[in-house]
Amino acid sequence: MPTLREVRNRISGVKKTQKITKAMKMVAAAKLRRAQLAVLAARPYARGMKALLQHLLPMVEPGSEPLLEARPLQRLGLVVVTSDRGMCGAFNANVIRAVQAHMAVVMPDVHTPSSVHLFLVGKKGADYFTKRGLPVAASHPGFFDQLTFGEALEVAREVIGLFLRGDIDRVDLIYNEFKSVSQQRIVIEQYLPLVPEVSPSETPVHPAHYIYEPSEKELLTALIPKYLNFSLWRILLESNASEQGARMVAMENATENARELIETLQLQYNKARQAAITKELLEVVSGAEAQAGAG
């Protein structure tokens, strides 16, 4: 049974941990507010660009745009977005499991160096996949320390460059989409090549006809790079907001667990202290009775 000093020291240690988790929760809440506003501001613009792009894609002649070229899938590129820091619950574990499941379905022979190219954004994903010897095309640890649009452009240029050179045939994105403070959703979506959306009946959507100035071809040529760059930027914002929400919830749970543990330890301390006092009283009474009997 632990001594009173050991229990008292453990209570002190848990209280210090509770202060840390509570402070981390407050920091995550402040960051979450800014990240959430950034996501909500980016979504309408991204939806508008996507709607315009989907309206133009059916009008493009096959083979006229290299970023629309669908090729037989022999080399898969995966952009995996995780966090730079831990203490955010299952945020990173969910992404890693989704990556492994996706690779097992799409490209079963993942250990062939030429079959999968991983573009890892965030230190946690980079550490995990690098240690396991999986083929890493590019790694960006410490990405979310100073998240800027320029860094998103750097990742987009890497991915688009390999696709245009024919080193990869398709690029998929795997990330956490922000739904609410306590809810994130793993999303797997195709980034390249761009493909027209189809209706639920799997028939191509025939959009209304508009007269464009400049021409559809010129507009699409200018729109595609902007769309790809901003799509990746939005995804990074989504992941950043999801991370802060996950960390806020995890730290709130940790703080509550610390409170419950302190209560349990305090009860254990009181019981041990009461037992020690009772033992001392019994020793005093026994000693007094022994002296009285000797007299």
Protein traits:
elongated; Pyruvate Kinase, Chain: A, domain 1; single chain; 5 helices; alpha/beta; five-stranded mixed sheet; 295 residues
Would you kindly provide a brief summary of this structure?
The chain is an alpha/beta fold and 295 residues long. It is 59% helix and 13% strand.
Task: Explain this structure.
With 295 residues, the protein is an alpha/beta fold. The protein has a single domain, classed as 3-Layer(aba) Sandwich (Pyruvate Kinase, Chain: A, domain 1), CATH 3.40.1380.10. It is 59% helix and 13% strand. The chain is built from five helices and five strands. The protein has a five-stranded mixed beta sheet, with helices on both faces. The radius of gyration is 29 Å and the shape is elongated. 26% of the residues are buried. The mean pLDDT is 87.
List the helices and strands and how they pair.
Layout: H1 4-56, E1 76-81, H2 91-106, E2 116-121, H3 123-131, E3 136-140, H4 149-165, E4 170-180, E5 183-192, H5 216-294
Parallel strand pairs: 1-2, 1-4, 2-3
Antiparallel strand pairs: 4-5
Helix pairs in contact: 1-5, 4-5
